[in-house]
Amino acid sequence: MKFLRNFLDDLHPHFAKGGKLTKLYPLYEAIDTFLYSPGHVTTGATHVRDGLDQKRLMITVGVALGPCVFMALYNTGYQANLAMAEMGIAAAPGWRGMVMEILGMGYDSQNFLSNVLHGLLYFAPVFLVCNMVGGAWELLFASTRGHEINEGFLVTGLLFPLTLPATIPLWQVAIAISFGVVIGKEVFGGTGKNFLNPALTARAFVFFAYPAQMSGDAIWTAVDGFSGATPLGLVAADGMDALTTTISWNSAFVGQIQGSMGETSTLACIFGAAFLLYTGVGSWRIMLAVLIGALATSSLLYIIGSETNPMFQMDPSWHLVLGGFAFGLVFMATDPVSASMTETGKWVYGFLIGFMVILIRVINPAFPEGMMLSILFGNVFAPAIDHAVVRAHTKRRMARNA
């Protein structure tokens, strides 16, 4: 590795101020700091030092997302192989079929390796397009503003693909991540200054701009001509009996169901949550508040009931394992930039999200998911919540000192 270190050091003068490639210094710096720790560190007693910098923070979140990425590969391939067997399709079409043939893999849904590799052929292109296009926007803004490329995009580039269906066209991925990075973050000054979660902003854009590719029965399984509704969509259309006769609670908990590639497994999200809480990166207050808000609201609506709206029939335990609830609770709602920052505010912010997601799911079954909209709603109100909390603290202190 010494050769690589010397090679990068030799290139540095060309990218430093006064060099021929000064405009591309953010790209050089991003590659250097990705491979090595920064060479300049603070010293002296006047500095506040911490073992967790932004680079380590993003790596920690990336590791926590590992189980969800694994389930994205496995379940995408599993659902595709299962549908192919049901429809009597012998091989995947196009280049994916050629790759599977070269690898000597069949399409048996009981074959673990076949499921993972088949799923990888759908997830990998979405992931690469998202990171290449989004990374290009990051480089453009960093070069224009003369600052370093922030590692925050690495998490956005991993979160966003996990929220998408396997069949989404790649050009829509490119447009959506461009909207999320530029409009959701860069126009506000970049990482740390955005008040909306960039990955969710991109998800909301593609959801409303291209609803045919983001909702409906035919988009969740990577097999042309196969139709299969998500569990929440199934309940909204046909009631709980249609759900319970199709899948079990355990299969929904593990994640072997229709849905976005990386959001289906509550079990994988629990592993991620445990790692984030252990490392101190994730806020347990927000996670618990979202859970309390969702359980309280769903229990109340379940007790009230409805003869015309089948979503009222859903037991609160089902809400926790369907859709993107667990994924949003663990990885989206806890975004340290767009979430509330005060300790009391985190409880209010989390409860608001939990309340809103159930309200959207049950009261308005036209949007049976709800987690995306509720978190963005919470992002918008987070500054006002923190402001109210700080003002309340200030008034109490002034009253005590009066």
Based on Cα principal axes, name the global outline: flat
Share of helix, binned: 55-70%
- Distance between the ends: 64 Å
Number of strands: 0
Radius of gyration: 23 Å
Q: List low-confidence stretches.
A: 45-49
Instruction: Please work out how many helical segments DSSP would assign.
Output: 19
Provide mean pLDDT, rounded.
87
Return the string of H and E elements. HHHHHHHHHHHHHHHHHHH
Give a quick summary of the entry:
Helices cover 64% and strands 0% of the residues. It has 19 helices and no strands. The longest helix has 34 residues, at 112-145.
What would you note in describing this structure?
The protein is built from 19 helices and no strands. Mean pLDDT is 87; it is low at 45-49. Helices cover 64% and strands 0% of the residues. With 402 residues, it is mostly helical. The N and C termini lie far apart (64 Å). It has helices at residues 2-15, 25-35, 54-64, 66-87, 94-102, 112-145, 152-162, 170-182, 198-209, 211-214, 231-238, 240-244, 249-254, 266-279, 284-304, 316-319, 325-332, 343-363, 371-401. The radius of gyration is 23 Å and the shape is flat. α3 runs antiparallel to α14 and α6 packs across α7. The longest helix is centred in the first third of the chain and has 34 residues, at 112-145.
